[in-house]
Design a protein that fits this description.
heterodimer; A: 2 domains; 11 helices; B: alpha/beta; ten-stranded mixed sheet; six-stranded parallel barrel
Chain lengths: 450, 481
């Protein structure tokens, strides 16, 4: 691995400037000016340090000491098509988009039939076609002036998916977007961008999978934006299964209009270091939000989850459940902020955070935060960190189940509370399989529980 | 309901302790330099080692930057315009007993209700009263001395018990600890010192009363309490200040040390001048309080009722080093007008089977902003650590804010850490119920608020609990609807 001599920020900027002319839409004026503005912001912000409160518990030294290049645009990935299939969810009938190192792979994608009026395309196509809805909405939800990774992503604006669901349209099948990365000796960086614009009373289910092929080191820096219209319903799942050496930073930004319903779930299982930001703005009255998450990590993995629910208007309801399972030397961070703006009366916000420590060497930092500026609200948060319930383990052992198995079973049950809320059945089963494998629950009982 | 008028009245309640005492004071010129520190040390007649420690602190302080992370806003403090030492001028050679204390001073304390006189003996409280910067009188010295308890101004302790002061001063809050603690280490003027010997249960509750009187003075108080093996002491502190347009700085340091089986209970009722409705004036209460449970089965309990100060910024903490040691933190913080509070605690679990409890009640009224910020840290070796935290906020009116920022940092799998927080307001149905029973709205509010704070008040010694309830009632008059 190459060791950086200049600052990491300079390397990112230099690499961007080298590639800029080749980026999609390099000749489109509004895209170019947007990119330059974002690059300036990234330049002003720099990479976050340990003194940065938002990054206090996540040490980015390893990331800063790595020089990331961009993937060779001429490279083809036909040979990897077979390996990619392991990230497809068995039994899931979906509109599937596959990207390899940021390049769309039509051969292994399966877009299928879409209801009339739905526009579903890659971001590259959207830029090329000059789509009005795309142009109006790009970067609107992801207004996050203090996040350098989002700024860097906005500068690159690389491939991803743009979907526009027109008013009243229901997409029955889930949309599955798979981002796969494969790096060799040279560490690579990818900046994928997704944008969903969901019209009035429209419905969609989006599953985003992030995975890696091989052992190479790479950085995934993704941004997903969702503009959710009145009365719309969105189910969103993000599944992070990166390679063991990967860095993963992803920010999700959603803005909900009146009476809309958003259920978003984030699963962090892979990667050496991962950071998940979930930002939801409840911008219309009567919205409902379910924000769930689970990180299940072992070895020396580090998972950081930052969630922010911004209750900007009255009469909104949010429920948050974030859980963590940590084994070996893993370290986890949870920062969950609920903001209730002045006048956002009758807000009902509930947040719960639980972490399960399976080893004495694992570390958890939890910061549930409430910021409340209105008086007629109901806001509750609870955080707890603990080990497996010894009485429950004893009960299982008294029924003839060995200690290891009991441990695996209880660990799986701990994750079950989050998995149970996954509505896409095939995804739920697949996640259950991955988690029980990770924590060695190879017994029929655990499988029966799925 | 006329609740909004009541709320307003409540929020506009005047500060009742805002008188000044016309007393001649002997002060240093404003400003901070090595000469200031030398002058303070010389006036106190301190030994060389103490001066060295102060100088070390000052030099370190000059390299530090004022922290900006708390959730409070204030105009920058000009450290050169503060008077670092102000003492009531002595008549003759200084008081030998209470009779010789300036009667005007005693009058001040009487107004404040401090039981400084002998006739108050029934209250059973020994008081070390700190007026601006020096301890004025210490009562009950004899009764305490019989038990072997040392309770005196820290300036006397430096002279008479240097071995204890040397051993423990700065051992819990080192001079390098933080910006305000370092400043205090350099310029602290006085404070209380208490040493309870092995196996002694301190026969009465000890108390300090702080009052800032002179203009432009900062009060830099240093308190050091040591409970030797098996000892018990309960310590109370109360604070007031006159009404001034400018802001006054109070940067105190409190260090507690509990050895094997010892218990220290530290209670504070803080009612510094909070500034007027527009937020002019008021005291900046930037205090470092920390206790070390050094011994096995030792216990430190902090109880605080914070009803004053323009800004309260403090985190009374417990370092649970000894196995099976216990830390407790009970707090009520009230912010109204333009007051701001960023307060909470730190519980650092190091020993095995250590336990801690945190109960924090924040009440925001008017334009007040109340922040709970706390840390529960369980070190890798802290087998069987247990923590329970509860942070409740109550909002009165729609212009105030309540914030909760708990930090949980766990490095041991056997730890059990729980945190809960709720936010609520005084329910219309609750008020209606009480009104129905013939209770006036104001009384009803006071009753609900007191009920909200009950868990904390029950931890306070009797007299303080009553005072705290009254304070809260007065502070909240006219706030609720």
């Amino acid at each position: 691995m190459a060791i950086a001599t200049g600052s990491a920020k300079d390397h990112f900027i230099a690499e961007y400037l080298r590639m800029e002319p080749q980026l999609m839409g390099a000749d489109v004026d509004w895209i170019r000016s947007m990119r330059r503005k974002a690059l300036d912001r990234f330049n002003a912000l720099g990479l976050p340090g340990a003194k940065d409160e938002e990054w206090r518990f996540t040490n980015l030294e390893a990331l800063e000491n790595t020089v990331f290049a961009s993937p060779d645009p001429a490279r083809t990935y036909h040979k990897l098509a077979g390996d990619a299939a392991k990230y497809f969810i068995p039994g899931l009938d979906a509109h599937r988009f596959v990207f390899m190192n940021g390049v769309y792979q039509p051969e292994i994608s399966d877009v299928g039939e879409l209801p009339a009026g739905v526009r579903l395309m890659t971001v590259g196509e959207a830029i090329g076609s000059g789509d009005r809805v795309f142009r109006e909405n790009l970067g609107r939800c992801a207004e996050d002036p203090k996040n350098p990774f989002t700024a860097l992503n906005s500068a690159w604006l690389q491939n991803g998916v743009f979907v526009h669901v027109p008013d009243g349209c229901v997409i029955e099948k889930p949309m599955h977007v798979v981002f796969l990365a494969t790096a060799g000796a040279q560490p690579l960086a990818f900046h994928s961008r997704n944008l969903a614009v969901v019209g009035r009373a429209a419905q969609i289910t989006i599953i985003g999978t992030y995975g890696g092929l091989g052992e190479g080191v790479y950085l995934t820096n993704g941004v997903t934006e969702m503009a959710i219209g009145e009365d719309a319903q969105v189910d969103h799942y993000k599944v992070q299964l990166e390679s063991p050496g990967a860095f993963h930073v992803h920010s999700m930004y959603a803005r909900q209009a009146r009476s809309s319903n958003l259920r978003t779930h984030a699963f962090a299982i892979g990667g050496a270091l991962s950071r998940q930001n979930v930002n939801v703005t409840l911008a219309g009255e009567g919205t409902e939000t379910v924000l769930n998450g689970l990180y299940a990590i072992s070895g020396t993995q580090h998972a950081d989850a930052h969630t922010r629910l911004d209750h900007a208007v009255p009469h909104c309801h949010s429920t948050e459940l974030y859980k963590g399972i940590l084994d070996d030397h893993a370290s986890g961070v949870f920062t969950g902020r609920i903001v209730v703006r002045p006048d956002a009366q009758k807000t009902d916000a509930y947040q719960r955070n639980r972490a399960l420590l399976l080893s004495d060497s694992a570390v958890v930092n939890a910061q549930p935060q409430l910021e409340i500026f209105a008086d007629d609200v109901k806001c509750t948060h609870g955080a707890a960190v603990g080990q497996l319930d010894s009485e429950a383990a004893f009960y299982l052992r008294s029924r003839g189940i060995g200690l290891e198995e009991a441990r695996a079973l209880l660990t799986f049950a701990f994750a079950g509370e989050v998995l149970d809320q996954v509505r896409a059945e095939a995804l739920k089963n697949e996640l259950g399989r991955i988690i029980s494998e990770k924590f060695h629950a190879h017994n029929p009982l655990a499988e029966a529980l799925i | 309901m006329s609740s909004s008028t009541t709320i307003n009245d409540f929020a506009n309640q005047q500060y009742k302790w805002g008188f000044t005492t016309d007393i001649e004071a002997e002060s240093l010129a404003p400003g901070l330099s090595e000469d200031t520190v030398r002058a303070i040390s010389a006036r106190k007649g301190e030994p060389e080692w103490m001066l060295e420690w102060r100088m070390k602190s000052l030099r370190h302080w000059l390299t530090m930057i004022e922290p900006r992370w708390p959730n409070v806003k204030y105009t920058p403090i000009d450290y050169q315009s503060i008077v670092y030492y102000s003492a009531p001028k002595k008549r003759g050679s200084g008081p030998k007993s209470l009779d010789e204390v300036d009667p005007k001073l005693l009058e001040t304390y009487e107004k404040l209700g401090v039981p400084i006189e002998e006739r108050k003996i029934l209250a059973g409280v020994a008081v070390d009263a700190v007026f601006d910067s020096v301890s004025v009188a210490t009562t009950f010295q004899q009764a305490l001395a019989d038990k072997g308890v040392i309770f005196c101004p820290i300036s006397e302790a430096i002279k008479n018990h240097p071995e204890l002061v040397k051993k423990y001063l700065g051992s819990v809050v080192p001079y390098t600890d933080n910006y305000f603690a370092t400043l205090n280490s350099a310029v602290f003027s006085d404070g209380s010192f208490c040493y309870v010997p092995k196996g002694v249960r301190c026969p009465m509750e000890l108390s300090t009363y702080f009052r800032i009187n002179a203009r432009n003075t900062g009060q830099f108080v240093r308190t050091l309490i040591i409970a030797d093996e098996g000892a018990y002491v309960s310590y109370l502190e109360g604070c007031t200040a006159p009404m001034r347009d400018e802001n006054q700085l109070h940067a105190a340091v409190v260090e507690l040390v509990a050895l094997d089986g010892a218990e220290i209970k530290y209670s504070t009722v803080q009612n510094w001048y909070p500034g007027d409705e527009e937020g002019r004036g008021g005291v900046y209460n930037f205090v470092t309080k920390r206790g070390a449970c050094r011994g096995r089965r030792s216990k430190i309990s902090w109880t605080q009722v914070e009803t004053g100060s323009a800004i309260t910024w403090k985190y009374p903490s417990c370092i649970l080093q000894g196995d099976e040691s216990v830390g407790e933190f009970y707090s009520v913080a009230l912010t109204k007008g333009r007051m701001q509070a960023d307060t909470g605690t730190k519980m650092v679990h190091i020993g095995k089977n250590t336990r801690s409890t945190i109960v924090s009640k924040g009440i925001s009224a008017g334009h007040g902003n109340n922040t709970y910020r706390g840390l529960v840290h369980v070190a890798k070796k802290a087998e069987g650590a247990r923590n329970y935290s509860q942070c409740d906020s109550m909002l009165i009116g729609d212009k105030c804010g309540a914030h909760t920022f708990p930090y949980v940092d766990v490095r041991n799998a056997s730890a059990q850490v729980e945190h809960e927080a709720t936010t609520s307001k005084i329910g219309e149905d609750q008020l209606f119920y009480l009104a129905q029973r013939g209770i006036s709205e104001e009384d009803a509010v006071s009753m609900i608020v007191n009920g909200f704070c009950k868990e904390v008040f029950k931890e306070l010694p009797m007299e303080f609990a009553i005072e705290a309830q009254k304070l809260l009632g007065v502070s909240l008059e006219g706030s609720v609807g």
